[in-house]
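__Record contents__

***
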Amino acid sequence: MHRRKFITQTAISAAGLLSLPLPSWAKGMFPVAAPYPLHNIPADKKLDVAWVRSLYERGLPTAYLKTKNELRYIGMPAGGLHAGTVYLGGDGRLWLWSIYNDEREGIDPKTVLWNDGVADRKIRNRDGASYVEPAIAANKRVLEQGFAVLIETGGKKVVKELKEEDWDEIIFEAAYPVATIRYIDKKLPVEITAKAGGIFIPLDADNSSLPATLYDISVRNHGNAPVKVTVAGWLENGAKKITAKKEEGEKRNAAISGKQFSGVFSDFNYTTQPEKTAADDGSTCILYLGEGGKANPGSAPWPVTAGFFETEGKEMFLSAADEKAVGCAFSPSQTLASGKTLRAKYALSWHFNHPFPKLEKKLKDTGEGYFYGTKFATAAEVGKYIAGNPQLWEQTLRWHETYYDSTLPHWLLERALLNIGTLATANTYRFGSGRFWGWEGVNACEGTCTHVWQYAQAMGRIFPALERDCRERTDLGIAMEENGGIIFRAEYESRPAIDGQAGTILRVYREHRMSANDSFLRKNWAHTKKAVQFMLAQDKNGDGLTDTPMENTLDAVWEGEIAWIAGLCIAAAKAAQHMAEEMNDAAFAGTCKTYVENGCRNMEEKLFNGEYFIHRPDAVQGRKKLGSYNTCHIDQVYGQSWAWQAGLGRLWSREKTLSALRALWKYNFTPDVGPYIKTHTGGRPYAVEGEGGMVMNTNPHNEPKPFGENVTWQLGYFHECMSGFEHQVASHMMAEGMTVEALVLTKMIHDRYHAAKRNPFNEIECSDHYARAMASYGTLISACGFEYHGPKGHIRFAPRLQNGAAFKAPFTAAEGWGAYSVKKNGNVSEHTLAVKYGSLQLSTIGLGGTAGGNAAVKLAGQTLKATVEKDADGMRLVFPSPVRIRENETLHITIS
C-alpha cells in the first residue's frame, strides 16, 4: 500500500468524502448526494487575553509532575544520534530500548480504534495510533535498568531507588537535550537531582553519535548532620536479549576498571556459533565515571537493600534463559557535611552493529554497518572513550546552558529544539560509509525523502556536516538523473518531486552559508546548476510559475499553476542566482534573476485572489483532478518562508504575503479542531477534539467540489493538523512580525504534546518522530532575525521577539556557537557576541532595528576598527580585515 494510503481502509463518510469514486458494490448506498460540508472555523478565536500575554513571558522550564500523573508517557530520546531509540522516562529510568535494528513500524506498532465523530475507524501507527493511544513507559522496559541511593545518617540506613514508586514527588524538567529530574521526599535530609541525556554538541556530529546515555546524579545534604551517601547504577545484559537459545551459550558480565572508570561489560559467550548473526548480537556496558568506584557483575537488585551495596565480583556467567543478568556499578561512598554535594556520573552504552535487513536489498551502505561500529568494537570501548573524554559531557551541558540562557520564552525554546531528537531515534542512520540516511517517521517511508526533509531546519543549523553529506552524496549524487532531476527517495523511487527539487536547491544554498568557506559549493556547483536547470524547465510557458505536473509532498500530481509550488521554485531560483553570482557564473545568474522577476510578478497578478494565494487550474484539465484551487492552503507562501530561513530577503509583495498569512489565521486556525474534524472527516488524528491547530486546507467560500471533480484518497490530508506544516507557518509569521499568531500556533502544538496526554518529545505524522517537525527550529531563527553566511564572514541579528530593551539568544555558525545579546538604554545599545565553543570569523555584522551612529568595538581588551553602514532596517559593521572570536571570548559593540 502506498505510504500513507489509509483512507480506503476506513469508513467513507457521506459528509466528508462523498466525492471519492465508489466501488461498484457501494453504488446506491447514498441515495442523496450531500453537499460539501460548510466551513466552520470561527473568525473570532476568542483567545483569553491573559493567556496570550503569558506566552511572551520568559517563564521556567516545562515541568511534569508525578502528583499530576504526568510521567507515564514521557520518552525523551536519550542516546546518541542514529544509534537506535532509547527513551528517558519521566522518573529517570530508560525504556523502549529500540537498539536492535527493529523492523517494526513506529515505536509501538499497533492499530487502535478512534471515533472521528461519524464512525469508529482503525488507525495504524502511520495514521496516528501513537497520538490516540501513546506508549506507556511501564509497558516497554525491555532491559532492567535503574539507580539507587544509600543514605546513612544517625545510625540508620535508607535506600531509595530513582523510580516513581519511591518518592513523594518527582519533577521532570523537559529541556532537551538534557532533562533534569528532581526526586523529593520531605523526610530525607538530602536533595537528589539527575541530569540525563546523550552527548549532544552542535557542530560535532561524530561525538554526538555515541551509542550511550549519560547520567549526572547530584546528592546534596540540606540537613544539619553529616550524611554518608553511595550511588548504585545497574543495567541488564542486553546481548541476545530477544533471540538467545540455551544451546548457543551464556550471557557474560565482566567487571572492568581503569583510571577514570569502573563498571560492568556485558556480552554473550557462544559455545555454538549460529549460522546467521542476530540483530541483538552485540554488547552493553555500564560505567561509573571517576575514580574509586566498584562493580558487581552478578547483581540481583530486587528489592534493593543496604546489603546490595556491599557486594562485589569479577565475572559472572548466566544461562541464556536467565532474563536478569544484571551488572552494577557503585560510586565511592562519601560523607557529606551540611550543604555539600556528591556528584556521580555514569555512562550506559550499547553496540549492535548489524545491517538492517529491511534496507539491505537497495542500500549498499548497510553492508558497512553503522558509523559507531567504525569507531568502536564493543560497548565497553564506547564507555571507555567517554570516560577518557570528560569534556564531551561538559560541552553538552555548556550547550544546554547557552541555549536556554535566553530572554525568549522557555517553552518556545523547548519546542523549537526538541524535535531534533528525531536524529537520536531509529528514524535515522549513519552508516559505516559515513552516509546519513533517514525515514520520514520511524521505519516508515524510506529514502530521506526530499519533499519531507526539506521542511526540517534544525539539522542544517545544529549539525550542518550531516546535511552537506546528504546533499553531496545523495541528492546531487546517487539520486541525480542525467537531466538534473533529483529522485525524491533516491534508491527507493524513480522520479523527482517538484517541491523536493526546489527544497533541495534551497538546502544546498543553506549548507553553503553554514560552511566556513566556499569549497562545498565549488565542489558541487556543476550538479547544483543541473538541478536548477531541471527545475526551471518545469515552467512550460515561461512565466516564472512552474506548471509541469509532478509529485508533491501531499502524495499527488497536481495540474496547473500552484502558488505554494511556484513560490517555492521562485525561492530556489533566487538561491541559485546568489550561488551563481558567487561562482562568477554571470550568465546563469541572469537566467535565474529573470525567472525570479517573472515569477514574483505573476504570483501577484495571476495567483492572488484578493485575499490569499491560490492554485490556478490547468487550461486543459480545468478542475478535474485533485488540487487546492480557490481554497486556503497552509503552504501557499512557503517560498517566502524559506527565503527568510536562507537569508534571501523579500521576494514578492509584503502586503499580499501578510494578507495570505492573515487568511490562514482566519480560515485555517482554530482553538478547537473538534467541530471541524467532525464535519470534515477522513483526516488522521494528529489533533483531536479540545485541541487547537491549523488545518491544512479549508474552503472558506463554501464552493461545491472545492478540491476538484474527481478527488482521491489524498483529500484526507486537507482535513488534518500536521505539525511540520504548522511550524513552517509559525516561523513565517514570526519573520513577518505576526508574533502573537506565531506564538499562539506554536503553543497550541506544544500543548497538544503535553505529557498528561502523550509523549512531549514525539511529534507524529506518518509514524513517530516525524522528520518534518524539525521545521520548529525555523521559528527560533525567525525570532532572532538570524542570518549567517560563513564564506562571506557575515552574521546578522534582528530580534522579532524582544523582552523590553533586552534580548539574548543562542546562535550556531560554521565553526562555533555561542550567544548574542543586546541591551538598550536610551540612545545607547550594548551588543555582545560570546563564543562558547569553537570560533567565529566575521567580516561584517548586521544589527537590525539599530539606528546608525558611533560604534565602539572591543575584543579581548583590544579596540577594533569598524566602518558603520546603513542596512535595510538597521546598520552594518564592516571590518577592514576578518576578525576571529575564539572560544570563551566575547566581542563587545557599543552603538551611541
The mean pLDDT is 93. Residues 586-606 form the longest helix (21 residues). Residues 145-396 form a domain with the Beta-galactosidase; Chain A, domain 5 fold (CATH 2.70.98).
